[in-house]
Write a structure and sequence with these properties.
By secondary structure, the protein is mainly beta. It is about 5% helix and about 45% strand. The protein has 2 helices and 14 strands, in the order E-E-E-E-H-E-E-E-E-E-E-E-E-H-E-E. A 5-stranded mixed sheet has the order 10-12-8-7-14, covered by helices on one side.
């Protein structure tokens, strides 16, 4: 593996590695690597993931952060150790819970969607028929951790349309051995 600096400034980075077992639905190991990236377009710094970190793991999530500020320089990237079809645990259902709330009370141009997943969900994509866009789309949800995603529009968001047509998909949705396209989705507002 390697990290690369394409900026005009040097960086000290920390590479955070989480090894996950899909079958057990838990993180089985973590590892951090620190590196100095000198100035220069295309400068690369190689790093190794120790084999013990990968024992009993199906995949790793790797993120790169600025060591001084904590700013995320590279969001979680997924590295599968085997092809998806060789990971039967990828077929296990994921249950999503979401809550849609208007964030901008005056103009109602921003709506926050709070997501939680029962299992590790990879490549989560949100879509809706409401006019606007998701500020962060295609993300990974860790089990029982809450993530807020903003939906933004240039005019007032039709929250009813957003709630009614919100679709949450992820890698399992496209895995050939799965029976349904979308796993169960629960709207906290309708409980």
């Amino acid at each position: 593996c390697y990290v690369r600096n394409d900026s005009l400034y040097p960086f000290d980075v920390v590479i955070k590695i989480e090894a996950w077992s899909l079958r057990d639905n838990k993180m089985v190991a973590t590892h951090e690597v620190k590196a100095h990236l000198p100035t220069g377009p295309g400068f690369t710094q190689q790093f190794r993931v120790p084999p013990l970190v990968l024992d009993h793991a199906d995949l790793a999530l790797i993120r790169v952060e600025n060591d001084q500020s904590g700013e995320i320089l590279m969001k979680d990237s997924v590295f599968l150790w085997r092809p998806p079809k060789a990971l039967p645990s990828l077929s296990l259902p994921v249950h999503f819970v979401h809550d849609v709330r208007a964030s901008d009370k005056k103009r109602n141009t921003r709506v926050s969607i709070r997501l939680r997943s029962s299992r590790l969900a990879l490549y989560v994509v949100l879509s809706t028929e409401a006019n606007g866009h998701f500020r962060d789309n295609v993300l990974h949800l860790r089990p029982n951790k809450t993530v807020d995603v903003d939906f933004v529009a240039s005019e007032t968001v039709n929250v009813d349309v957003l709630r009614r047509t919100l679709r949450i998909e992820h890698l399992r949705s496209f895995h050939s051995s799965c029976n349904s396209l979308v796993d169960s989705i629960v709207d906290d507002q309708q409980r």
